[in-house]
Amino acid sequence: MGQSHAGNVEVLHYWTSGGEAAALAVLQKMMKDEGHTWTDFAVAGGGGETAMTVLKSRAISGNPPSASMIAGPEISQWGDLGVLAKLDTVSASERWDQLLPPVVADIHKYQGSYVAAPVNVHRINWMWMNKSILDEVNGGKVPQTWDEFFAYMDKAKQSGYVAFAHGGQDWQDATVFEQVALGVGGNEWYQQAFVQLDPKALGSDTMTQAFTTFKKLKSYMDQGMPGRDWNLSTSMVIDGKAAVQIMGDWAKGEFAAAGKQPGKDYVCAAVPGTQDAFTFNVDAFMMFKQQGQDAQAAQQDLSRLLMSKAFQEEFNLKKGSIPARPDVSLARFDSCAKQSMADFQASAKSGTLVPSFAHAMAMQPEVSGAVYDVVTNFFNDNDMNAAAATQRLVSAIELVK
Ligand code: GAL
């Protein structure tokens, strides 16, 4: 279905790192090839907090972009405002309901109509390990438990490497904490605490143990950690300066952009204790009501392209994620992506799919923002103990949920 009218789309996103920009360029080219023009509305800031703030101000002023990156239940809040364009025509003609797993489809509908097009599934409970450091310092053995992990951290630090690469920003602190909590507490407890917001689980000794394990990581970080962007930490692992980063597989996009291969230059492995779980988030583009036939036609073409097989293959190869559509062939994807798809499907079957609260899949933004604050303040305050952080978490969530 070619375009009937050349139109313009303005797209808000926060994909400004090397790998992210390379992935987005796939979409920009496809839209250009269909005769449309692209106004790039990039708002830097990993995790997208800043982008979402800018989007809210644009929408409040009655001037939303054609489309914006979005993830998770927040889509329903936008739907409540009546500003989203319904994608009934393109989703029906392209058979989205038959293509998407229900867990992915439902997030992107409002009152039964698609209002957003999902493009991927990111796995977040990954460790990214520099392979030559792992071979030199740990005989190539991937740590499976937290004891083995910290033993490796000690050896990497003693060998003169930055053992743990991290960027001290609230969303990154929350991202790492979330995986540690899953690894320490397990899938069932995580769901009770961070999905059901059960005060008992939130205030449990398990939570205190998770906070304790999380802060222990701090002694393995370098002086440049505060405020560092996530992709600069990934570069430290790529360049052999640091041994490990815990981050979603958007980090794999940086390895790909640097021409690095899994199994040869780096190793992807589940965060200790999370081997049988899959923490996920789904990137999507939410469509805002537009005036004028050309703008609407361009927006419909954008939606169709986002969910097309061709786009989802090329985009995810560069983004580090796996396609939202399970029918896209992974023949051209690397071993980490193939493991991710296998684990995603196994976790979907066994009920161990874990929606990421750090990446907008488990809570409304006002709740995840409160969790961000508690986690980051605890991480930065060397005098705050884990039990106090647990109590602060319980009361912070009670206030906002
Ligand atoms: C996540 C998003 C990823 C990547 C990451 C770092 O929330 O889903 O696509 O952009 O932030 O910015």
Q: What's the arrangement of strands in the largest beta sheet?
A: 2-1-3-13-6
| Global geometry | globular
Low-confidence stretches: none
Distance between the termini: 45 Å
What are the distinct ligands in this entry?
beta-D-galactopyranose
Give the amount of beta strand, in percent: 5-15%
What is the average of the pLDDT values?
Answer: 96
Tell me about the biggest sheet? 5 strands, mixed
Number of helices: 18
Rg from C-alpha positions?
21 Å
What structural class do you assign from the helix and strand content? alpha/beta
Number of strands: 15
The percent range for helix content is 40-55%
Topology:
Blueprint lengths: L7 E6 L4 H16 L3 E6 L6 H12 L6 E4 L3 H7 L7 H6 L2 H4 L2 H4 L3 E2 L2 E2 L1 E3 L1 E4 L2 E5 H8 L7 H13 L3 E3 L5 H26 L3 H4 L2 H12 L13 H9 L3 E5 L3 H8 L8 E5 L7 E4 L2 E4 L5 H14 L2 H11 L2 E2 L11 H16 L2 E3 L9 H16 L5 H15 L1
Parallel strand pairs: 1-2, 1-3, 9-10, 12-15
Antiparallel strand pairs: 3-13, 4-5, 6-13, 7-12, 7-14, 8-10, 8-11
Helix pairs in contact: 1-13, 1-15, 9-11, 9-17, 11-18, 17-18
The protein binds beta-D-galactopyranose (GAL).
Task: Provide a quick synopsis of the model.
This protein is of the alpha/beta class and 401 residues long. Helix content is 50%, strand content 14%.
Structure description:
The radius of gyration is 21 Å and the shape is globular. Strand 4 and strand 5 form a beta hairpin. The termini are far apart. With 401 residues, it is α/β, with parallel strands linked by helices. The model has no long low-confidence stretch (mean pLDDT 96). The chain contains 18 helices and 15 strands. It has helices at 18-33, 49-60, 74-80, 88-93, 96-99, 102-105, 131-138, 146-158, 170-195, 199-202, 205-216, 230-238, 250-257, 293-306, 309-319, 335-350, 365-380, 386-400, and strands at 8-13, 37-42, 67-70, 109-110, 113-114, 116-118, 120-123, 126-130, 162-164, 242-246, 266-270, 278-281, 284-287, 322-323, 353-355. The strands form four sheets. The protein has a five-stranded mixed sheet with strand order 2-1-3-13-6. Helix 1 (18-33) packs across helix 13 and helix 9 (170-195) runs antiparallel to helix 11 (205-216). Bound molecules: beta-D-galactopyranose. Residues 14-15, 20, 46-48, 71, 122, 230, 250, 281, 283, 359 line the site of beta-D-galactopyranose.
